[in-house]
Amino acid sequence: MRPKIAAGNWKMNGTAAALCELDALSRALPENPPQVVICPPSPLLFRATDAVHGCPIQIGAQDCHTEEAGAFTGDISATMIADTGATHVILGHSERRDTHCETDADVQAKARTAWTSGLTAIICIGESNAQREAGETLDIIGAQLDGSLPDDVTADNTVIAYEPIWAIGTGKVPSIAQITEVHDFIRSRLTTRFGTEIGNALPLLYGGSVKASNATEIFAVENVDGALVGGASLKADDFAPIVAALASA
Ligand SMILES: O=C[C@H](O)COP(=O)(O)O
């Protein structure tokens, strides 16, 4: 049985004042909540882990360097992230692949260093609008999976998030048939490469304009085990109903 995971990516939003949302979220969690992971900007990590102490919310970072330490001005390492008490790190988000030119090989190297520090890697993949319109979606997703996932992936060290780039922050959501097609494809690719035990155990999240109004039908898709949510994770009032929808899925 795969875990259900509601992950929130705050991206470059929020100062210390935003941490009150964690308290509000914890009070709004359903009785049997899914796994909830909030990924605030890195300056908030220490305070965020303090803020969720004693409640079932985990904290993640949004990126890490491939190296554990060194002369890399402005970067943070997986070791530093783990030191804050965080448990997860998002890797290969399309915004980093785009604005920081991250490659599949970079993502794979980051996953390895994340695991070394005991972090769970949330590895993001997804096609652009041009790639979808050219009929290349499954080829792109397959190549990203092949290149971004190390061979020794396990269901304990990795979560995969499918985020079509054209759905991120746009309000455009793929049809249920499109989400189903890609998630089924990912599942099949994983079982072929890693075997049925690991391939069927790896959690798959959908991301891109998830809101309370569309969460229930997205979570009903067989190979959707949760969501990676951007804008709607910033406020507990918006995120709590998504978490509740996942708990009831
Ligand atoms: O990491 C989260 C995704 O980029 C989705 O963002 P969004 O929910 O604002 O579309």
UniProtKB/TrEMBL annotation:
Active site (UniProt): H93 (electrophile), E163 (proton acceptor)
E.C. designation(s): 5.3.1.1
Domain of life: Bacteria
GO biological process: gluconeogenesis; glyceraldehyde-3-phosphate biosynthetic process; glycerol catabolic process; glycolytic process
PROSITE patterns: TIM_1, TIM_2
Record localization: Cytoplasm
Any one annotated GO CC term: cytosol
Keyword Cell membrane: no
Chain positions recorded as substrate binding sites: N9, W10, K11, G169, S209, G230, G231
Catalytic activities: L-erythrulose 1-phosphate = D-erythrulose 4-phosphate; D-glyceraldehyde 3-phosphate = dihydroxyacetone phosphate
Pfam family, one: TIM
InterPro entries: Aldolase_TIM, TIM_sf, TrioseP_Isoase_bac/euk, Triosephosphate_isomerase, Triosephosphate_isomerase_AS
Enzyme class: isomerase
Gene Ontology MF: a single term: triose-phosphate isomerase activity
Pathway: Carbohydrate metabolism; erythritol degradation; Carbohydrate biosynthesis; gluconeogenesis; Carbohydrate degradation; glycolysis; D-glyceraldehyde 3-phosphate from glycerone phosphate: step 1/1
Primary localization: cytoplasm
Sorted UniProt keywords: Cytoplasm, Gluconeogenesis, Glycolysis, Isomerase
HAMAP family referenced in this protein's UniProt entry, alphabetically: TIM_B
Similarity annotation: Belongs to the triosephosphate isomerase family.
Free-text function comment from the UniProt entry: Involved in the gluconeogenesis. Catalyzes stereospecifically the conversion of dihydroxyacetone phosphate (DHAP) to D-glyceraldehyde-3-phosphate (G3P).
Assembly and oligomerization: Homodimer.
Name this polypeptide is given: Triosephosphate isomerase
Originating species: Sulfitobacter delicatus
